C-alpha cells in the first residue's frame, strides 16, 4: 500500500508528525513496535510553549485533563542546600504554565488522535527492511506473524536514539566510561511542593523531580557509567536502586521528599544518552525527536523539542506540499528543515550541556547552590534559553 508519508515510531515526535500531516489531508502510516500504554524513561515535563501546538492539533482538552499541577517555580537541590527562588516562565497566550503528564497517557492520547484523524496506526509492527524503489521508500514490516510492504515518497524516522534495531540509525553503540545512563522512578505520597520542579545535582549525575499525572511524583535521573561502576563496588542492589541511594546521600532535600514516599513500580532504565545534534535529513528521510538531536535532560526539554520539531517538519512539508507529496525537491526541503531545526534547538542543547556539566561535578553542592542563591534569575535564564518561553505557532 502507498501513502504520502510513513512515520516510524509513535512517541511524541512521531505521533505528532503523523497527526499534523493527517490534519492537512495527507495519507500517513504510523508504525510502532510496542503496544501502548508503555512506560518510558522521560522527565514528563511539558513547557507552556507547547500550548499553541496542542490547540491547533485538537489535543488541548485531552492532555490538560491528564496533566499534573502547574509548574510555577524551578529550583535546585544540591548537597545540603536548596534554592527555589526562581519563577518559571508562562505563556500568556496559552493556558499559562508548564506541567507534567505521564508518558503512558501522553503517547496514547496523541496516537488515538492521529488514528481518529485518518492515520493508519500499525501497532505492534516493526520495520525489518527499507529500500528505495523509484520515487518511493519501501518498508518491509512485520507483526511477528504477517509480513508486508508499504511505501511512500517520504519517511519520517522518530524511533528515538536509545534502542537498537535493524535500521542503520539504530545501530549498536560501544560502551564508553563517560556514557550517561538514564533512570526513572515514580512515587506516591511524596511531599514536593505542587508548583515546584527542582534540578537535583549530585556527583557523577543529575536529575529532576516533578508532580505528574494521578498525583504521582516523577523522578528521572542520569548518572555516568563510571560513577555507577564505582558505586557498585561498595553497594549491592540493582543499578537504579544504587543510583537512587546515591542521590539521597548527596542531596538532602531530595532525600526529605522521598523519605516517606512509596515507589509504585520498578525503576526503569535506558540509555546510553549521548546528547548532541545529529543529521536531520538524508535521501528523502527526515528525522524528528531524539534521533534528530538530543539535549541533556537537565533542562527537561525532551518532550517539548519532540513536539515542536515534529510541528516544524509538518509545517515545512505542508508549505512545499506539491513537491513533497510527489517526492520532488526533497533535498531542498531537507536543507530548510535541518537549518531551521538547528536555529531553534541548538541553543537549548548547548545550554543543557552547560548546566549538566556543572551539575555532575563533585563540587556541585558548593558551586551551584550558592551561585543560584546569590543570582536566582540564573534559574529562569536557564529555563528561558532552554525554550520555556512563548512559542509562535506556524
CATH architecture: 3-Layer(bba) Sandwich
Tell me the domain tally.
1
Global Rg: 21 Å
CATH homologous group name: FAD/NAD(P)-binding domain
Report how far the terminal alpha carbons are from each other.
31 Å
Beta-strand share of residues: 25-35%
Structural class: alpha+beta
Q: What about the largest sheet?
A: 8 strands, mixed
Question: Uncertain spans, ≥5 residues at pLDDT below 50?
Answer: 373-394
Q: How many separate helices?
A: 12
* CATH fold descriptor: FAD/NAD(P)-binding domain
What is the number of beta strands?
Answer: 21
Mean pLDDT over the residues: 85
Shape: globular
Range of helix content: 25-40%
Mind telling me the CATH class?
Answer: Alpha Beta
Amino acid at each position: 500500500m502507498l501513502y504520502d508519508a510513513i512515520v516510524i515510531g509513535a512517541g511524541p515526535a512521531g505521533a505528532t508528525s503523523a497527526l499534523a500531516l493527517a490534519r492537512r489531508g495527507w495519507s500517513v502510516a504510523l508504525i510502532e513496535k510496542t503496544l501502548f500504554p508503555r512506560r518510558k524513561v522521560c522527565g514528563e515535563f511539558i513547557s507552556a510553549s507547547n500550548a499553541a501546538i496542542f490547540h491547533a492539533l485538537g489535543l488541548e482538552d485531552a492532555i490538560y485533563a491528564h496533566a499534573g499541577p502547574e509548574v510555577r517555580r524551578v529550583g535546585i537541590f544540591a548537597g545540603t542546600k536548596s534554592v527555589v527562588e526562581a519563577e518559571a516562565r508562562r505563556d500568556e497566550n496559552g493556558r499559562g504554565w508548564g506541567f507534567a503528564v505521564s508518558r503512558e497517557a501522553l503517547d496514547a492520547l496523541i496516537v488515538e488522535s492521529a488514528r481518529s484523524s485518518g492515520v493508519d496506526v500499525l501497532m505492534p509492527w516493526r520495520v525489518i527492511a527499507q529500500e528505495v524503489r523509484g520515487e518511493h521508500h519501501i518498508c518491509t514490516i512485520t507483526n511477528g506473524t504477517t509480513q508486508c510492504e508499504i511505501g511512500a515518497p517520504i519517511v519520517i524516522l522518530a524511533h528515538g536514539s536509545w534502542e537498537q534495531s535493524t535500521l542503520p540509525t539504530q545501530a549498536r553503540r560501544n560502551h564508553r566510561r563517560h556514557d550517561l545512563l538514564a533512570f526513572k522512578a515514580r512515587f506516591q505520597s511524596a511531599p514536593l511542593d505542587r508548583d515546584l520542579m527542582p534540578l537535583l545535582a549530585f556527583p557523577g549525575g543529575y536529575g529532576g523531580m516533578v508532580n505528574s499525572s494521578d498525583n504521582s511524583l516523577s523522578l528521572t535521573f542520569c548518572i555516568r557509567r563510571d560513577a555507577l561502576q564505582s558505586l557498585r563496588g561498595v553497594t549491592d542492589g540493582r543499578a537504579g536502586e544504587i543510583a537512587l541511594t546515591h542521590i539521597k546521600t548527596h542531596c538532602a532535600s531530595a532525600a526529605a521528599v522521598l523519605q516517606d514516599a512509596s515507589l509504585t513500580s520498578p525503576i526503569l532504565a535506558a540509555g546510553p544518552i549521548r546528547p548532541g545534534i545529529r543529521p536531520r535529513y538524508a535521501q528523502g528521510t527526515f528525522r524528528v525527536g531524539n534521533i534528530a538531536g538530543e539535549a541533556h535532560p537537565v533542562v527537561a526539554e525532551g518532550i517539548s523539542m519532540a513536539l515542536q520539531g515534529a510541528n516544524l517538519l509538518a509545517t515545512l512539508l505542508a508549505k512545499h506540499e506539491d513537491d513533497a507529496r510527489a517526492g520532488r525537491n526533497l533535498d531542498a526541503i531537507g536543507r530548510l528543515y535541518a537549518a531551521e531545526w538547528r536555529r531553534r534547538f541548538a541553543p537549548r542543547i548547548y545550554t543543557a550541556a552547560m548546566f549538566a556539566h556543572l551539575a555532575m561535578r563533585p563540587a556541585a553542592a558548593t558551586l551551584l547552590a550558592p551561585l543560584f542563591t546569590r543570582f536566582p534569575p540564573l534559574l529562569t535564564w536557564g529555563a528561558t534559553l532552554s525554550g520555556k518561553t512563548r512559542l509562535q505557532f506556524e
